[in-house]
């Protein structure tokens, strides 16, 4: 299997222990160019690590990516949170809040509550009905 040079370099950098794997410094040169190159080498040692990256893109750990994308079940924590607070608000206050948040259109209005009519008790007794039946229908 062919590996690109950047992948190979990145793998070696990950496996490389700090302080090992670097070539011993070569012969020192005198002159302005040598001094500038030495300054550049001292100035940015962390840039040598990410040569294979694109415009400052950081190399991410596969394990960190896995843990970040791993699905977490929040059910138990959410249930504990919801069941923890047993404070029930006043009915009048909740109605007031709902009324404030409700729109003014007719479709947003709640259905009107129909007042339940209580069955009225009759004035007549069973004997009165029997008496009326005898008189009206002529039954004995």
From TrEMBL:
Keywords assigned by UniProt, alphabetized: Nucleus, Ribonucleoprotein, Ribosomal protein
Protein species of origin: Hypotaenidia okinawae
Q: Taxonomically, what lineage is the organism?
A: Eukaryota, Metazoa, Chordata, Craniata, Vertebrata
Which PANTHER family does the entry mention?
Answer: ACTIVE REGULATOR OF SIRT1 (PTHR31454:SF2)
Q: What is this protein called?
A: Active regulator of SIRT1
In alphabetical order, the GO MF annotations are:
enzyme binding
InterPro entries tied to this protein: AROS
**Subcellular localization, as worded in the UniProt entry:** Nucleus, Nucleolus
> Which residue ranges are recorded for the region named Disordered?
13-49, 101-120
Q: Which GO terms describe its cellular component?
A: nucleolus; ribosome
- State the family named in the UniProt similarity comment for this chain: Belongs to the AROS family.
